[in-house]
Specification:
Blueprint: H1 9-59, E1 68-74, E2 77-86, E3 89-97, E4 103-110
Antiparallel strand pairs: 1-2, 2-3, 3-4
C-alpha cells in the first residue's frame, strides 16, 4: 500500500459536521445577546429620562400637581411616566414595551427640596 498524505472522505465529513454544529449553536446565542443588548440600551435611556423628569419634581416648585401621568417618546419607544407622593418621598415610575415586546417598569424615589 502506498503512503497517503491527504484527508479521507470520513475525516472531511466529520470536520464539516463539527463546523456546522458550532455554527448552528452560535447563531441563536448571538441573536439572543443582540436582543438583550437592545433591551438594556432602551432601559438605560428611559430610566435616565425618568431621572431627569423626577428632578423637576424634587428641585423646583414649578411642576404639575401630584399625582401626574404623561407620555413621552424616547428613541422610538413610547414611555408612560407617572409621579405620585408616598409619605415624604416622590415616586416616579415609567412603563414601556421593550425590544422583546414585553412590558417593563422601573421606579425611582426621591426626597423633595424643602
Amino acid at each position: 500500500m502506498r503512503k497517503s498524505n491527504g484527508f479521507t472522505l470520513i475525516e472531511t465529513v466529520v470536520a464539516a459536521s463539527l463546523l456546522m454544529m458550532i455554527i448552528t449553536s452560535l447563531i441563536p446565542a448571538t441573536d439572543l445577546l443582540m436582543k438583550e443588548r437592545m433591551v438594556q440600551q432602551q432601559k438605560r435611556s428611559i430610566v435616565n429620562e425618568l431621572h431627569s423628569e423626577l428632578q423637576t419634581y424634587l428641585w423646583n416648585g414649578n411642576h404639575p400637581p401630584l399625582p401626574n401621568e404623561s407620555t413621552k417618546r424616547i428613541k422610538g419607544t413610547e414611555a408612560i411616566f407617572s409621579f405620585t407622593k408616598e409619605a415624604q418621598l416622590i415616586k416616579g415610575c415609567v412603563t414601556w414595551t421593550n425590544a422583546q415586546k414585553r412590558g417593563d417598569t422601573s421606579c425611582l424615589y426621591g426626597y423633595p427640596d424643602q
